[in-house]
Write a structure and sequence with these properties.
- It is built from 13 helices and 19 strands.
- It folds into 2 domains: about 160 residues, Aspartate Aminotransferase, domain 1; about 230 residues, 3-Layer(aba) Sandwich (Aspartate Aminotransferase, domain 2).
- Helix 4 packs across helix 10.
- It is globular.
- The strands form 5 sheets. A 7-stranded mixed beta sheet has the order 6-14-13-12-9-7-8, sandwiched between helices. It has a 4-stranded mixed beta sheet with strand order 3-4-5-17.
- The protein has about 400 residues and is an alpha/beta fold.
- Bound molecules: pyridoxal-5'-phosphate.
- Pyridoxal-5'-phosphate binds next to helix 5.
Length: about 400
């Protein structure tokens, strides 16, 4: 693909990317600008962005609150190191405790990504019980660092990097496997689960799973740690997905939407799990810097001021109802604006590409599922445009599946 520069000459940007960037995939387009739910590539092609930087851009692109907060805080104080506290960091910790409902006893550690938040959670589990297993679920995605990767049981991701950290086990994401885990004589230090497995194609846990997991972990002295990196900060229509289940975990990990596009991650602890870390056991140079913290505070305030959680719920329902009956759609799953659209054939890659060619960004996490995670700010226009373009993309792929199907 070529890029036309202002002087009229062209560059092969994919060739340049292949030459200069680590060979790790990606590079679907050369994007240079965004506004609201739209992004533009260097050729001026507009895309309706229904992936939102993989469930990150909660306020869409170039939101004035985001842009003004970054500019103001950058011109005031952006980084001081973890030898110091800042008002922005203290405000964010208090907000997260309040939103998560930890009460007085909660504690917050601020990092820079979901992976780092999960590394912190792994260390929390070790501090809780060094001899117990850390257990995660098949299909989980918790990150790519060697610790978080050990909790991400996918051969293609893990095998090149073995040996991974020891003391980790995986169980099927079923109630039976959960019961069997705690019926056995293995000591469990922590159970780490995503309330909805985003990377596995937006797969919710079985009904009642989190409540039973809470009962069993409490009864066996294990921590219940929820990875809310993708589901948290309002994505499901609740501030955190566990709040729909009426339980309180021992810890949650957060990132993605927390600062709506500015790198930030967090571990929030509840109850006695808040007393496990002590000076010298963990830290981060950049984590909790005033710039990232100020952006997160402003994002949370904007979500509250505009009642965006209600919009997340309402638009999610509209989108799910809207895709039902489109060609190839076999059902939907997820919550709020984290939606998996199940396809009746393993053609998700083709659907994603057909959507892209029509100016719509969606993602195909598995062969038969399309994931959408648009901005919390979407309105009637974005929903209507999505349904129109997505319907056309599905019809095109359906026609190649079965030439009888009208395109
Ligand atoms: C549930 C979950 N946990 C952890 C991560 C890793 O987060 P990050 O890419 O910010 O390190 C992701 C990323 O997709 C995720 O979806």
């Amino acid at each position: 693909m070529t890029r036309t520069k202002p002087d009229g000459t062209t560059t092969d940007w994919q060739g340049v990317a292949a030459r200069d960037l680590m060979s790790l995939g990606g590079r679907l387009a050369l994007l240079e600008r965004g506004e609201g739910s739209y992004v533009w590539d260097v050729e001026g092609t507009r895309y309706l962005d229904f992936l939102g930087g993989i469930a990150v851009n909660a306020l869409g692109h170039a939101h004035p609150v985001f842009a003004e907060t970054v500019a103001r805080q950058a011109a005031t104080l952006s980084h001081v190191s973890n030898y110091f506290a800042t008002p922005q960091q203290l405000e964010l910790a208090a907000r997260l405790k309040q939103l998560a409902g930890t009460g007085e006893q909660g504690r917050v550690f601020l990092a820079n990504s979901g992976t780092e938040a999960n590394e912190t959670a792994i260390k929390l589990a070790r501090l809780h019980d060094r001899d117990g297993l850390i257990v995660s679920l098949e299909g989980a995605f918790h990150g790519r660092s060697t610790g978080a990767l050990a909790l991400t049981p996918k051969a293609a991701y893990q095998d090149p990097f073995r040996p991974l950290i020891p003391g980790v086990a995986h169980i099927a994401p079923t109630l039976d496997a959960l019961e069997a885990l705690f019926a056995g004589d293995q000591r469990v230090s922590a159970l780490v689960v995503e309330p909805i497995q985003g990377e596995a194609g937006v797969l919710p846990l079985p009904d009642g799973y989190l409540r039973r997991a809470r009962e069993l972990t409490t009864a066996h002295g294990a921590l219940l740690i929820l990875d809310e990196v993708q589901t948290g900060m309002g994505r499901t229509g609740h501030w955190f997905a566990y709040q729909a289940e009426g339980i309180a975990p021992d810890a949650i990990t957060l990132a993605k939407g927390i600062a709506a596009g500015f790198p930030l991650g967090a571990l929030v602890t509840f109850g006695a799990a808040s007393d496990l870390f002590y000076p010298g056991t963990h830290n981060s140079t950049f984590g909790g810097n005033p710039l990232a913290s100020a952006v997160a505070n402003a994002v949370i305030q904007e979500i509250e001021d505009r009642d965006l959680l209600a919009n997340v719920t309402a638009r999610g329902e509209e989108l799910r109802a809207g895709v039902e009956g489109l060609p190839l759609v076999a059902g939907t799953r997820g919550a709020g604006l984290l939606i998996g659209i199940r396809l009746s054939a393993p053609v998700a890659a083709g659907v994603r590409a057909a959507a892209h060619a029509r100016g719509l960004i969606v993602n195909a996490p598995t062969d038969d599922a399309i994931r959408i995670a648009p901005a919390y700010t979407i309105g009637d226009d974005e929903v209507a445009q999505f349904l129109e373009i997505f319907g056309e993309a599905l019809a095109e792929v359906a026609a190649t599946q079965n030439p009888e199907t009208p395109a």
